[in-house]
Write a structure and sequence with these properties.
47% helix, 13 strands, alpha+beta, 4-stranded antiparallel sheet, 479 residues
């Protein structure tokens, strides 16, 4: 049964290859096997695999492969083995979803199609370049990939349905830990718990006025008839949407900051909002379409630039708070963060940073090699329980702020043990249980389902043993 555990990985490939998200380099690296044979050169289309009542066409595989290439990955025919494995497991899950009444809404599918296409367009360097690469229009391509995206969403939802009731007890965690050979226990790097009180520079009304006027000038140009999308490409400072003419696709209310959502869900299709301010800067938006609780908008953003006087004001405030905390020894860092910090992600978490690579567990233990280098350098000189003097930090997006850091705890590198690492081991035990459950489900479904794979793909190691004919198997077992 272990050899069918690869089915678990297939769902990753559904997202990374068919999903057209970040370039799936790990998929390419994982393929160390010889590429699958090319097959007949003159074959226009054929059935690559039969899965129960469904078929997978060669054109389905080629469509996913073209998407893989459009993400900037090098040609690698061996990836087609993974694509077929992904589609095969997707079909099994989708067929069970029909039986279990698991489905997704059409507007959810539309939103996902739009989101993936925006990512593909951005990676390709623009819509024209993507259309040139694909040899068809974006509208045509969206129509082609929509059924597969819908099926993959249903498959992923079905997988969640299979595993939704899985849980682990402390005893399960202990048993899982005890099964790991002592010489195979993982080593965890040095970890720290770090808190912060962040002081962001804030522009005053006079400093922001020029940026507001620039946004209003662009608004007036749109109202006088200039093309919204062209102005967005030329002047919008939202790097995620400017190249798409400011188009943000379909999204729900929770996707946007409150000021943006208020206008997006107030206006009718075609209407343009006035210039308004949010934490990001000055915007104005146009509603393109509304579907229930989803809205399709585009916008132009002008971001005010931080001035030296605003940085000086932030430093003065940070110095004042630091002096207060040093003078009054029993000042609670958590309360100070909640009251003074401008960082919304940490101020209501006692000021404590979360491990960005393990957000689901909301753990505050962060490996030092995963910390911001500036933070790591400062923390390395601190004592547990101590706070740092205010320092100027610059994040990956270029935003500057003054921060007071607090070192709550520090754990040296060590071999995994239940006392120090119970949350991590619990997570691993949970994932192991999920993997075994999914693997067993696929093994059972495989035995019950007729699966026929085209000879071209029978040499794929990922598909070894997947072919199955339940009727033939039953005849063989009869006396």
């Amino acid at each position: 049964m272990r050899k069918f555990g690869v089915a678990i990985l297939s769902l990753i490939f559904i997202i990374s290859i068919a999903g057209a998200q970040t370039a799936p380099a790990p998929v390419a690296k994982a393929d160390t096997t010889p590429p699958a044979p090319r097959g007949p050169v003159h074959t226009l289309d054929k059935i690559a695999c039969v899965v129960g009542s469904s078929i997978i066409l060669q054109s389905d595989i080629e469509l996913q492969y073209s998407l893989y290439l459009s993400n900037g990955n090098p040609p690698n025919p061996g990836i087609k083995c993974y694509i077929l494995q992904s589609l095969l497991t997707q079909k099994l899950l989708a067929q069970q979803a029909v039986i279990d009444s698991v489905s997704v809404k059409d507007d959810e599918v539309d939103n996902e199609v739009d989101r993936r296409m925006r990512g593909s367009i951005q990676r390709a360097g623009g819509q024209d370049k993507l259309e040139q690469f694909l040899g068809r229009s974006i509208i045509q391509y969206k129509d082609e990939i929509r059924p597969d995206i819908k099926e993959s969403m249903i498959a992923n939802k079905m997988r969640g349905h299979i595993t939704e009731k899985i849980g682990v007890t402390p005893l399960d965690v202990e048993k899982y830990y005890n099964r790991i050979p002592k010489d195979s226990l993982p080593t965890f790097n040095k970890e720290v718990e770090v808190g912060q009180i962040s002081f962001s520079p804030k522009l005053n009304k006079e400093e922001k006025q020029a940026y507001k006027e620039k946004a209003e000038e662009l608004w007036n140009r749109v109202k006088k008839g200039e093309d919204f999308a062209t102005l967005a490409r030329l002047y919008s400072e939202d790097t995620g949407s400017a190249s798409d003419g400011g188009d943000l696709g379909f999204a729900d209310r929770n996707t946007f900051v409150k000021e943006f959502a208020a206008w997006a869900f107030k206006l009718k299709a075609g209407e343009i909002s006035p210039v308004f301010e949010s934490d990001f800067g000055y915007h104005f938006l146009q509603v393109i379409e509304r579907r229930g609780e989803q809205v399709h908008v585009r916008h132009i953003l002008v971001i005010p630039k931080i001035t030296q006087p605003s940085l000086d004001r932030a430093k003065a405030k940070a110095d004042s708070v630091y002096g207060l905390m040093v003078k009054i020894k029993d000042v609670n860092f958590s309360n100070a963060a909640a009251f003074y910090s401008d960082d919304k992600e940490t101020k209501y978490n006692g000021g404590m940073m979360l491990n960005a690579e393990n957000v689901e567990t909301r753990t505050t233990y962060i490996p030092t090699d995963k910390l911001d280098p500036q933070v790591a350098l400062t923390v390395d000189t601190m004592k547990i329980g101590g706070i740092s003097k205010p320092q100027l930090f610059t994040d990956q997006g270029g935003k500057k702020s003054y921060k007071i850091l607090y070192l709550k705890s520090s754990t040296d590198a060590h071999k995994a043990n239940l006392k120090q690492d119970f949350p991590k081991i619990k997570e691993q035990a949970m994932q192991d249980k999920i993997n075994r459950t999914v693997s067993e489900w696929f093994e059972k479904r495989r035995k019950e389902t007729f699966i026929k794979i085209d000879p071209e793909y029978q040499s794929c190691p990922q598909l070894t043993g997947w072919e199955n004919d339940p009727m033939t198997a039953q005849l063989k077992t009869k006396p």
